[in-house]
C-alpha cells in the first residue's frame, strides 16, 4: 500500500518535471506540462529555437529571424 501511495496513485501530488514550482495530481501532470505550464518548451515561430513559454515574448524582441522577416517588429507602439 505504501508503494502505491508514494509511487503509483494517480491522486498523489507530484512536482512539475519542468520545475515551474507547481504541484499537481499525478493524473493531471502530463496535461499541465503539455498545455498549461509556463515553462513548457515551445518553438519560436521564426527561428524554431525551443525555449520555455515564459521566455517567448522576450525572445521575439531579439530574434534575428523575426527581424529579417519583419524589420519593424522590434518597435513597440505605446498607446495612451
Automatic annotation (TrEMBL):
Q: Which UniProt keywords apply?
A: Metal-binding, Zinc, Zinc-finger
Residues folding into a coiled coil are none
Keyword Metal-binding carried by entry: yes
TRAF-type zinc-finger residues: 4-57
Instruction: Please provide an example of a Pfam family that matches this protein in its UniProt record.
Output: zf-TRAF
Q: Where is the TRAF-type domain?
A: 4-57
- MF terms (GO), sorted A to Z: zinc ion binding
Per its record, how is this protein called by name? TRAF-type domain-containing protein
Its source organism is: Geodia barretti (Barrett's horny sponge)
Amino acid at each position: 500500500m505504501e508503494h502505491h501511495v508514494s509511487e503509483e496513485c494517480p491522486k498523489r501530488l507530484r512536482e512539475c518535471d519542468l520545475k515551474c514550482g507547481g504541484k499537481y495530481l499525478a493524473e493531471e501532470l502530463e496535461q499541465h506540462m503539455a498545455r498549461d505550464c509556463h515553462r513548457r518548451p515551445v518553438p519560436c515561430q521564426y527561428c524554431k529555437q525551443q525555449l520555455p513559454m515564459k521566455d517567448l515574448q522576450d525572445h521575439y524582441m531579439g530574434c534575428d529571424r523575426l527581424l529579417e522577416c519583419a524589420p519593424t517588429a522590434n518597435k513597440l507602439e505605446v498607446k495612451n
